[in-house]
Structures are given as structure tokens and as C-alpha cells.
Amino acid sequence: MCSRFELNANSRQVTARFNLLAPPGMPNRAETRPTDSALVIGVGGASLARWGLAVEWDSRPLINARSETLASRPTFRRLLGCRVLIPASAWWEWRAEGTRRIKTKLAPAKSGLFAFAGLLDGECFTMITCAAPTELAEVHERMPVILPPEAEAAWVDPAVPYAEMAPLLRPMAGPFTIEAEAPPSPVQGSLF
DNA sequence: CCAGACGTTGTT
DNA sequence: GTCTGG
DNA sequence: CCAGACGTTGTT
DNA sequence: GTCTGG
């Protein structure tokens, strides 16, 4: 599921939206993929972290954590107090249509920045997922957890027990904008 | 980052 | 070799 | 002891 | 590498 997202904003906009004390250094690109650096906001403010936890049994980064089970997974359990916000403006899923996969850009219809729920492990982070609501299920059955803005401060506060935060890990209410992106064009068209 | 696809016709 | 998706 | 999981997503 | 189940 979510293996790509966007933060289409500048440092000043992020500072204002998340009440930061100082403008953060921003990622090089708006579009973030696994292992890329992304902006994360924790109890100590904003910083850059790599997307995906390193695990011993797979060379690929562990980019998602299921909300339904993360409290019982040893890999994530130790991180339940290292909660971070991941500022974003949209994310992508791939809708299966026969054998084709249609890249689809998703965002809350109410425009503006929002925050995914993440867990930080040193310099790497993972993104928490939940079931997708009906409106999005036809695109993809899962989605990243988007926190209600009023819960963002508590989410990053390690003094707040995880048990109080767990109820937040559920599908965001819509509506959403859903934009299918143009299928990739051939690198070289036919000559005639 | 890395594994897997990358295409179609016609049909095992 | 390059692109795509997880 | 030792094979298999360990985590996700999507699904042969 | 470490943990778990048979």
C-alpha cells in the first residue's frame, strides 16, 4: 500500500501549519519514496528521517505498520513512545484494473496540509496504516492513518500513554479527491 | 532500497 | 537498462 | 534442537 | 540476529 506520498509545501507553510518554533530543513523533493528523507515532527520539533525501518530478514525497508496489530508486534512495540507526525499533502495508491495498475493520487478534499501517523526508530520511520473507508476502497483497501489536527500534539507527546492514542488509528472521514494519473507514455513513440 | 517487470498474440 | 511498486 | 518466522502489501 | 512453535 502506501509507498509514495507528497509534501507540496515550503518550510514557512509547514512552520505555520504545525506551530513549529523554527523553519525546518526540507526534503529535496516533494514526492517521497521508501528510503528517501522526509520531514517528521516529534516532541523535539521537526527533522529529516529516512522512510523505512531496517530489518534483518529483508533487504527492503519496512515502510508500513498495521494499526490493528502494531501493539503486539515486537518490532513496533518498543516504538510506541516514539510517535511522530509525517506532514503531507497527498499520497498515491495503485488501483488494479485487470492487469493494469492505475496510479491514483489521493488527498482529503479539504485542501491543506495534514499529518500521517508514524513511528520513529532512530533515524528511520514507518507509517501506520488502517482499513480504507468505502469511498477509497475501490482504489485500495488500505490507507495511511491521517490524524485529526486536534490530536497531533498528543500524538507526539511521549508522556501520553499509547493506549490513549490507539483509538485515533482509524480511517479518516472523507470526502477525498481521487485523481487517476495518465498512464505512462512509451519512452519512444512509433516513428510513423 | 530492491525485486520484478518490461509486451503481445493466442491459447497449455 | 529503466521503470514501478512495496 | 531446528525450521521458520520476523512485517507489509497484495494475492499464485 | 532472535524468537517461537513443534
TrEMBL record:
| Superkingdom, natural source | Bacteria
Single GO term (MF): peptidase activity
Gene3D superfamilies found in the cross-reference section: SOS response associated peptidase-like
Question: EC number(s)?
Answer: 3.4.-.-
* UniProt xrefs under Pfam families: SRAP (PF02586)
Q: Which spans of this chain does the record mark as coiled coil?
A: none
> What is the uppermost EC class here?
hydrolase
Which SUPFAM superfamilies does this one have?
Answer: BB1717-like
Which keywords does this chain's UniProt record carry?
A: Covalent protein-DNA linkage, DNA damage, DNA-binding, Hydrolase, Lyase, Protease
Provide one Gene Ontology biological process annotation. Answer: protein-DNA covalent cross-linking repair
**What family, per the record?**
Belongs to the SOS response-associated peptidase family.
- Full protein name: Abasic site processing protein
Protein source organism = Paramagnetospirillum kuznetsovii
